[in-house]
Design brief:
6-stranded mixed beta sheet; 12 helices; globular; two-stranded antiparallel ribbon; alpha/beta; single chain; 8 strands
Length: about 300
């Protein structure tokens, strides 16, 4: 698409968003990293990291610096892996990752990034006692796995099975359930605290709601204003539109794969039941497969195809 046509298209999308009172949310890939690297939002970033990790905020403020986000490659021709936001705070390296849907793939990818950062730190250390603490903070818009119950923030370390002993104090992972914080706010379960307000502001895509959540807090108001300012950029709006389209396609693909997996599981159950000579009607009731599908499976069994 010609550049001028692309810009005009994005301008139209921007007008439509403004008419609906919408903004590009801070959790969008195209905005997350840029937003949190703004000098005027350093206080927000310092507060957020301090509250999540327990690291002294004055210490963070004094020593925080942003670093290159490309992870080391296993092979020369391997495609580079880029993290969202990588920060050094003296002897701590912190990786902030924004995830759309927390599923097995996302979890495995995040763990891979975390281990690569730890390996890189170990490789650079002159001895094994000089490595940095490698902290990964994963912000999950939706928790499809439901691994962490209704907790908003869950910390992980390398601990013994009974939890009594910690093998490595330098390898720490935090999972942030943005969906739980959103539900807590909108369902009025209880009053949300300042950290939760910051995290909530990252998820909001309505200007009026940004105003409401940031009210009475000077730093949160600045964060709100920057989100609105960035949402005035036609190029950013175009990137956000593409991002939403990709997420929709990915979700459709995931749902199709899950459906196929569920159907295959029922087929395997039906095969086992046929192997025990159970009647077709009972198998159909239990597996929800049609009688015709089960008859076809029985024919396969009869000719030793399974």
């Amino acid at each position: 698409m010609p550049y001028k046509t692309l810009i005009n298209s994005n301008i139209e999308k921007l007008k439509e968003m403004k008419e609906r009172g919408e903004v590009v949310p801070g959790c969008a890939d195209c905005l997350f990293k840029t937003l949190l690297q703004q000098d005027e939002l350093k206080g927000i970033l310092v507060y957020m990291i301090g509250e999540i990790t327990g690291i002294d905020k004055t210490y963070i403020d004094k020593n925080l610096r942003f670093v290159n986000t490309e992870l080391p490659k296993d092979k020369y021709l391997e495609k580079g892996k880029i993290t969202d936001l990588l920060i050094d705070i003296e002897d701590n390296r912190i990786n902030l990752e924004m995830n759309g849907v927390l599923d097995e793939g996302t979890l495995n990818k995040g763990n891979s990034y975390h281990h690569r950062l730890a390996a890189k730190s170990l490789y650079k250390a002159e001895n094994y006692t000089e490595i940095k603490s490698i902290i990964q903070i994963c912000f999950n818009k939706k928790d499809k796995l439901n691994k962490f119950g209704n907790e908003s923030i869950v910390e992980f370390k390398m601990r013994s099975k009974d939890g009594k002993y910690c093998l490595d104090e330098t390898f720490i992972n935090y999972q942030i359930n943005l969906e739980e914080i959103t539900n807590k706010y909108y369902n009025k379960k209880e009053e949300i605290n300042r950290l939760e307000k910051i995290l909530l502001l990252l998820t909001i895509d309505k200007e009026k709601e940004l105003e409401k959540v940031s009210k009475g807090d000077k730093e949160l108001k600045v964060m709100k204003e920057r989100i609105i300012d960035f949402s005035e950029d036609p190029l950013l709006v175009g990137l956000y539109d593409e991002e939403k389209a990709r997420e929709k396609v990915n979700q459709v693909n995931i749902e199709a794969a899950e459906k196929k997996g569920a159907e295959q599981k029922q087929i395997e159950i039906a095969k086992n039941m046929l192997g025990k000579n159970m009647d077709i009607e009972t198998i159909s009731d239990i597996t929800a497969l049609t009688k015709e599908e089960i008859v076809n499976l029985k024919k396969q069994k009869d000719v030793n195809q399974f």
